[in-house]
Every structure is written in C-alpha cells, then in structure tokens.
Amino acid sequence: MKQINRREFLKTLGLAGAAVTGVSLASCGGKKEEGDFNPNGTDTSEIPTDKMEYRSFPNLGEDKVSLLGYGCMRWPMVPDPNNEGRDIIDQEQVNQLVDYALAHGVNYFDSSPVYCQGQSEKCTGIALARHPRESYYIATKASNFFNSEFDNSVLMYKKSLEYFQTDYIDYYLLHSLGGGGAEAFKARFVNNGLLDYFYKEKQAGHIRHLGFSFHGDEEAWDYLMQLHDEGTYKWDFVQIQMNYVDWENASGRNTNAQYLYSELDKREIPVVIMEPLLGGRLSKLPNHVVARLKQAEPTKSSASWAFRWLGNHPRILTILSGMTYMEHLQDNLRSFCPFKPLNDEEMKFLADTAKIISEYPTIPCNDCKYCMPCPYGLDIPAILTHFNKMVNEGSVPEDAMDPKFKELRKRYLISYDRQVPKVRQASHCVKCGQCEPHCPQQIRIVSELERIDKLVEGMKQGNLGIAPEGSKS
Questions:
Q1: Is position 32 within any domain?
Q2: 250 and 244 in contact (C-beta within 8 Å)?
Q3: Closest Cα partner for 415 from 79, 26, 36, 25?
Q4: Does the N-terminal peptide bond of residue 373 adopt cis geometry, omega within 30 degrees of 0?
Q5: Which of 254, 273, 285 is nearest to 312 (CA)?
Q6: Burial of 18 per CB tally in 10 Å (0-12, 13-18, 19+)
C-alpha cells in the first residue's frame, strides 16, 4: 500500500479534517444519538501540530510516546451492505481519524483481536500502513480468554502481525490479567508454554516490549508484582484502569488505582492508562458537577480535567482514549497540545469532585462491549449507558408521585427508544447469564437489565416504585 510522506500528508490534512468534523458516526456496536456528544467545552482554538507532550523511560529504549494514545476499541461503524443486521468499521472515517491524530503528534495506537467484534486490528492496520512504520507504535494483546490452547494463542498473535502489516509489535500485552487470580494466569500463559514463546519472540525482535493489562483484586496484583520482583517474568510496562474516581473509589473487581500506580512507580515500571474517562462517564457528568468544573475553567470540557489530572503523574507513559468522533479527538488534543499540569489546588478540587461523582447511582459500565454480542440480540452496553446518562441528567424519577414524573417519564422513554431499538431493549433478556463472565467490571448484568426493565415498565404504567441503583460486586 502506498505510504504518504509527511509533507504531502500535512498539506492535504486540512481538507481531510474539515471533511469529517461535522459527520455523525456510530461507535463499535452502537449508534450516536442526536446530541449525545457534548464535551461542554467552548475552546475552538486551532490545534498546533508540534506541541504534543511525549514521555520516555530508560527501559523502553529510545521510544518517545505521545501522552495521548489512541484506543482502537470504539471505531466508527456503519451497516454492512452485504449482511443485513451487521455493522462494519467505516474504514474511510478511520483513515481520516488516524491521519489527523498522527498529524497532531499522536503515535501510540492500542488495539486487540476482540475489539469491534474482531475488526479493529485489521482496519487500524490498514489506516496505519499508509504511513512510515517508524512514525507510530502498535500495541495489541493476547486476548485468549475463550481458548488458551498454545496453537490457538500463537495463531492469534500471528494474525495480529498480519493485520497490522508488520513483522514486529511495539507493545504486546497479556490481556486482562487478574480475573481468576494466579491460577487463571498460569492456565492462559504459563502451563501451555505461551509466555515462554512470547519471550522468545521478544528476543527475536518481533515483540519490542512485553506487559499486561489488569482488572482484578490486590491478591492477584501482588502475585504479578512478585513475579517481577523475583525475576520470573519481567514486565516492561503495565496497563491499568486509572482516573480521578477510580483513584480511591474503584468499582466492581477493580483495585483502587492509587495502589496499582504506587506499586508500579516504586518498581519504575511505565504505566499505560485505560478508561481515563470511565467509558465516557467523566465526560458526561451530572449537570451540577459540570457547573462546578465550569466555575474553575469556563472554556474547558469535563474530559480535559480528567486528562490533565492523569498527566500530573510522571510514571504514566500514555493515556488511551477511544475517540470515535472527530469532535472527541480534537477536544482531547487540546488537553495535550500543549499539556498544562494541574496545580495542587486543582488536584484537591478533583478529589472532592470524585467524592460527589461516586455518590451517584450509576452502573459501572465502561462501554467496552466485552459482553457482546448477546445471543438474543440485546444491546447491553447501550441499555446501561443510557441509564447512566439519564441518572446524570436527573431524568430518572424516584416514584410516580414526583412532581416532574410526567416530564421525566416522557424524556426517558423517548430517549430510550431513540438510543436502543425496541427489539434490543432490556425487556428481551432471557437471563441466560452468558454476558456476565466477560465483564471486566464484574457488573451483575442480568440483575441490572431486570431492574431497568422494571423501571421502564413502571414509567409506562404510571406505577413506578423506587428507581434502580447502580450495582457493584
């Protein structure tokens, strides 16, 4: 495939960027609701192409990684013209997003064989291969959750190389360690000889840096750190879920990020950040929280606060954001081009804000879509994230005696039907439970769907009881 040289690329990008700025896109497995994107920022200043913040660490050689990394889990989707009912990634839009990101200094792209229902690596590879290989870093994962046999896992790894059209991966991760503890880790990577194989691939230069991503408890974490300390397996970098809420108020089976980060910092292991916005929840905050942030920074979006908070931590290598829309990408770039750290007063301000947010009864869904596809056609992430949106907007009535019940009822039901087609709503859940083992946040999905369905039916019938609260396990 023909590569674009940088001079031609920057010369033509202005037209390419302008062509997609106002386009409505659909994220992986979902559709954009009208008005759904609201970064609540008013900064429309031009984004410089030479002001990106970069991080480097001695154990990563000469790598200079952009502080903003591109998470390739939420690429724009369009209906497949050859298969009714199936969505595919919009390759043209991905190309334009990648071009714009590279032009503004983003050079770290993180994918997985399971992202976008298995389509992410190939489409990301097509977009990146149009540029010089040395201009970007590829991160992807050994996502062998469902079949950890050696041959299958190696095939997955080789497919990643093929899809990215390369003979080496810069940052390769053992995907989502922590669930099941030490025994699950051994079964997926040790007993089958797979981790030894990856280390041989690293020696051969096909893997430059080897690490893992983590969702789990302190016991599982401490075991993985012990392996590093003993020299059994050395981790070049580690990816954790970290944001100003999870710092001290992690939900589900996640461990407080403060503990994870401090343990990595102590060992001088570079940190890659996932879920900096909690699946978008920190960019779509309750109205009074947004007002609180606006008093401090009138032109900045809620998301910019989360990114700047993370950038204050010096052990962080890059902060991944799944930017489906050009508006997302542009808003996020303004937080890093150039990067402006928070001062002590602002850090304390966000700590107080985190306490307010943690009191809201939202469901800890990060829209990762690991629960999909549902065998009965439900759009589980859309159902849960819609509920969270309604909670944040104050659009969930507590009971039928609420003075605003009719108004809130209408708003919720109309919005629900727009965002989630009726055939994919919670009422169609048969409680098979197939989704729950795959949820990194360990949400009791079946229970949540049942409670949301009761809420919806109660609003329709006018005999609403107490609205459901977000569950944690």
A1: yes
A2: no
A3: 36
A4: yes
A5: 273
A6: exposed
The phi and psi torsions of 273 (rounded to 5 degrees) equal -105, 130
pLDDT in the model for residue 17: 34
Structural domain harbouring 281: 25-358
Pairing outcome for strands 271-274 and 237-241? parallel
- Give start and end residues of each alpha helix (H) in 79-149: 91-103, 120-128
Query: Is residue 7 included in any domain, yes or no?
Result: no
User: Which residues, other chains included, contact 331 with Cβ-Cβ below 8 Å and sequence gap of 6+?
Assistant: 39, 41, 43, 301, 303, 304
Asked if residue 71 is part of any domain, the answer here is yes
Please give the C-alpha separations between residue 78 and each of 84, 178, 184, 374, in angstroms, as whole numbers.
11, 34, 36, 19
Of 409, 425, 411, 426, give the one whose Cα is nearest residue 462. Answer: 409
The number of folded domains in the chain is 2
Whether 322 and 427 map to the same domain: the answer is no
pLDDT, the chain, mean:
86
| CB-based burial, 415-446: b 16+ in 10 Å, e otherwise | bbeebbeeebbbbebeeeeebeebbbbbbbbb
Please name which of 365, 392, 292 lies closest in space to residue 36, comparing C-alpha atoms.
Answer: 392
Considering 324, 358, 392, which residue would you say is the last residue of a domain?
358
Any idea which residue has 């595919």 for tokens?
A: 88
> Facing residues of 15 across strands?
none
C-alpha count within 13 angstroms, C-beta hemisphere, residue 377: 10
Tens of pLDDT, residue by residue over 273-327, are: 999 998 777 887 877 888 888 888 888 888 999 999 999 999 999 999 999 989 9
- Looking at the fold, whether 311 and 446 belong to one and the same domain comes out as no
Q: DSSP 3-state assignment of 350?
A: helix
Q: Are residues 267 and 384 in the same domain?
A: no
Q: What CATH code is carried by the domain that includes residue 246?
A: 3.20.20.100
pLDDT < 70: residue spans in the chain:
1-42, 84-85, 360, 398-399, 464-473
Domain annotation covers residue 428? yes
Q: Using an 8 Å Cβ cutoff, are 50 and 105 in contact?
A: yes
What tokens does 465 get?
């009881």
Say if residue 119 is in the same domain as residue 194: yes
Q: In the prediction, which pLDDT does 465 show?
A: 52
First to last CA, the chain: 48
Nearest CA-CA partner of 176 in 189, 190, 161:
189
Q: Are 142 and 47 members of one domain?
A: yes
